[in-house]
Amino acid sequence: MKTIKRLMLVAMILFSKVGMFAQLRLGAGSSFAFKSVYPSLQIKGTYDIDHHWRFGTSLNYFLENDVHLVRYLDANFDVHYNFLKKEKLDLYALGGANYSAAKFNEEFLSTGIKNYNTELGFNLGAGALLKISRNTAVFFETKRTLASGGQFFISVGLLFSFGGK
Question: What share of the chain in percent tops pLDDT 70?
Fold first, then answer.
């Protein structure tokens, strides 16, 4: 019984700490992948756990690709670590997972390659979050996707804050 009470106390302390710092940010931006040389539209969300740790996710839809590709999507699930946190600026390192999917047009099928391809990879990079008002921030990220079709990305956009500090 004492063990259960102690576990419940630890859980309550942890959850109260997360609740004090938790902040959800949602927004949009654009990404540029150097291998594909076309921009993407990006939807992004972040969730602050505490002063140092944040979860981030993004979905990129590339606007146009070479004549062989019809569609290219990429989804990222990252963890951010703030190594510099000032009143208006956060600088962070990031690492996480990447999922990408490409669909090819019919002409490309004659080469013997299937008409779609999916791939899992890892992300490593860094970013900045510049607060321009109480509930609005500009983000900038650079990251490298480590996979067989890996690329170097630069992303920029706006995030709007909901809840938290």
Answer: 72
pTM assigned to the model = 0.77
| 11 contacts: CB under 8 Å, gap ≥ 6 | none
Tell me the per-residue pLDDT of 93-111, one tens digit each, with 9 for 90 and over. Answer: 999 999 988 777 666 555 5
> Alpha-carbon distance 91 to 128, whole Å?
5
Closest CA to 45 of 120, 157, 164, 165: 157
DSSP letters along 119-162, please? EEEEEEEEEEEEE-SSSEEEEEEEEEEESTT--EEEEEEEEEEE
SS3 state at 34: coil
- Report the Cα 67 to chain-centroid distance in Å: 28
Could you read off the pLDDT of 7-19 as tens digits, one per residue?
A: 455 545 544 444 4
